Amino acid sequence: MPAGLIALALGGFGIGLTEFVIMGLLPEIAADFGVSEAAAGWFITGYALSVVVGALLVTAAVTRLPRKPVLIGLLVLFIAGNFLSAIADSYPAMLIGRIVAALCHGAFFGIGSVVAAGLVPAHKKAGAIAIMFTGLTAANVLGVPFGTFLGQNFGWRSTFWAITIIGVVALMGIALMVPRTTEGTATSSLRSELGAFTSGQVWLSIVVTILGFGGMFGAFTYIAFTLTEVSGFDPHAVPWLLVLFGAGLFVGNIAGGKAADKSIDKTLMVILAGLALVLVFFALTAASPTATLFSLALMGGFGFATVPGLQMRVMHFAATAPTLASGANIGAFNLGNALGAWLGGVTITMGLGYTSPIWAGAAITVAALLVMIAAAAAARRGGAAQSASAPQAAPDVVREPEEAPVA
Asked: Where is the composition biased (Basic and acidic residues) (predicted)?
């Protein structure tokens, strides 16, 4: 395994931690700043919106620059945002810190996906992307419970100091272990990157990303209410039950990457169908604590198994200029989160109960599957040259002559 993948995964771990750990610290942060829970929620909403903006605008701004220095610069932005959060003495200062940290999120995962794919042979590209996203899944499995524990026992600022340190370590790792590349200068321009969006398959891939991830997060956003009000678990058990969900994310991400390296479209269709079935099963059996345990793990596994394939597919159909399309797809994941959370909230407001977000998630996932089937059929009709049945996207990283390859 190239050492650069480990450095990219560590960066993903830090970014995933800063996105998700605040959910467990909102009561402490709200009390410290003297604001309502709804106002504190903007630390999450503002972050998500900033991710979408950064995924497009920041990626577009750096598209002609060499990717390694860009990744380093993005981590500097990440470190600065979390440092501002750690020292924030007011609500607006904290919100600014969150927004600054989030600006690097989409661009880091978008550009990092291209770099990760270029570090390995063609038949291992989706697996390499999965390894980079392992950092994000590990943040859910290990980082969030530990970060919440740290914040609850030593003050919420200690968590952001820890994340800042992780950012510094990740920056050093990328500086030392990711090979310098010449791509993003001679072979790429903003015009060519924007030209990738003339491909209908790129847009279909992005739609599948929004719907596929929206389906999982439609169910997951209100999972605490489902676990306590329907399944009957004690509220104190919820964080540890989410570790089970996170373990599913971790396994699904790796398995999905390996499967997508063999066939992207078939893998995505099978996984989306499996996710829809898991959500229906979960909705029907949520009153059973035992069945809920299985559903949590399977929902995480099938939900995140789509990520390497979805990211690889959009890069494949934007193969000559994949950077901006890759970043846009990271933004699409966050739009999916917002869509799922909104629709799940609508069903609860309508009085349909705490299993209704799961049903809504299943419906969105079925829509993703239908779009994926149509996209795969259109790709087959379009000819073998750009078919995603065998992954060939993301051009290999071209190392500059003065730098030795990193194993």
From this structure: 397-407
Contact between 141 and 17 under an 8 Å Cβ cutoff? The reply is: no
Contact 294, 277 (CB under 8 A): no
Task: In whole angstroms, give the CA distance from residue 243 to residue 24.
Answer: 13
Please compute Rg for the chain using Cα positions.
20
Under 8 Å between Cβ of 64 and 324: no
Closest listed residue to residue 306, CA positions, set 251, 267, 357, 360: 267
Tell me, what DSSP letter sits at residue 16? H
Domains in the chain, ordered, with CATH? Answer: 1-188 (1.20.1250.20), 189-394 (1.20.1250.20)
| Tokens 């009000």 belong to residue | 229
User: Encoding tokens for residue 174?
Assistant: 């990328």
Chain mean position to CA 70? 19
Decide: helix, strand or coil at residue 98.
helix
Asked whether the CA dihedral 234, 239, 244, 245 is positive or negative, the reply is: positive
Residues of the chain under the 70 pLDDT cut:
1, 23-24, 37-38, 41, 140-141, 181-197, 319-323, 383-407
Rounded Cα–Cα distance for residues 31 and 10 (Å): 31
3 state SS for 246-268: HHHHHHHHHHHHHHHCCCHHHHH
Nearest to 140 by CA among 307, 284, 290: 307
Cβ burial of 191 (10 Å; 0-12, 13-18, 19+) is: exposed
Write out pLDDT tens, residues 169-182.
999 998 888 887 64
Distance between CA atoms of 55 and 77, rounded to whole angstroms? 14
**How many C-beta atoms surround the C-beta of residue 26 within 10 A?**
15
Burial class of 35 by CB neighbour count within 10 A (0 to 12, 13 to 18, 19+): middle
> What type of residue is 127?
G
Query: CA distances (Å), 70 to each of 75, 108, 126, 188, 268, in order?
Result: 9, 9, 22, 14, 30
Answer whether 86's CB lies under 8 Å from 206's CB: no
What's the CA gap between 83 and 327, in Å, rounded? 25
**Angle at which helices 91-118 and 289-317 cross, to 10°:** 60
DSSP 8-state assignment for residue 188: -
